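Incident log, structure service

09:12 report received: a user says their structure output differs between two submissions of the same chain.
09:20 pulled the input from the user's history:
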Amino acid sequence: MTVLTFDSSGSWCEATLHPADSDDLVGPAGRPCVVMAHGFGTTRDSGLAPFAAAFVRAGCDVLTFDYRGFGGSEAPVGAPRQDVDHRRHREDYRAALAFVRARPGVDPDRVALWGTSYSGGHVLAVAAEDHRVAAVVSQGAAVDGLAALTGRGKVRRPGAAPRRRTPGKGRALAAAVADDLLRARTGRPPRLVPFVGDEASGALISGSGAVDFEAMTGPTFRNEMCARGIVRIAANRPIRRVSAIRCPTLLVVAEHDEIAPSTSVHDAARRMGEHAEVAAYPCEHFALYAGPVHDEVLAWETAFLLEHLRAVP
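09:34 re-ran on a clean worker, output below:
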């Protein structure tokens, strides 16, 4: 593995290049490469390793990277750290694509995108505009931020107890957003709120498995975000672009996803038509990273990439 950096709109992103373990997929122009980043404000050292290792064993180079302002990456020009903005995240994916396509030994026409949760939506939006992308894997995808915020389309697991809601959490987050927006206008340090935690923590994400996921995160992850990022979620709607995707795309769906509504992902698949392959599991969002379905998810994703990233004879 090699740690390196690449430029994204005048700031640098830190990344890790994982070279393929074999030459099984080498073609005349080089090896395929899979570009990977995490969801929302999570870092590349937080649960991506099993996925990257599987793709490396299959014969792909893999690039994992941190968004600007997160993990080992530089803060974006004119913005604070820990500021979630889907537009900047997508810029970073585009920059990562350009970076790996220019690397010696990488076949620029066999580069795939992999994303999970928030980045599961980013890879769809990027592939919709970049028809050179060879394949996409999108798991637990946030394809409609407006639906996620309103709770529209969420399918609760049969027999599951109703989610407990801490009174006043919504009001507290709204107050934090208002305070942070004012701080941004007056040049003061940002107001931070936790990403994940239990219901009592006041975290933005407190669904089933959120606390267990926090325990999986790596040393560079900071469980805090600028509150202003919450208002951008409703504008993050890659579902409006997916009909433009032209490459094979695997949509891994957690049917009882309490974070990113599964009905929105199925809607995205219908809009994509023949370009979409759906792998649906009767589980909740965080079970895709670790749990009974994880091994099957990993095997399906690897087989999909092998099928679509083989060199053309």
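09:41 both user submissions now match this output. Likely a transient worker issue. Closing.
09:42 reviewer note: The chain has one domain: 2-162+235-309. The domain at 2-162+235-309 is CATH 3.40.50.1820 (Rossmann fold).
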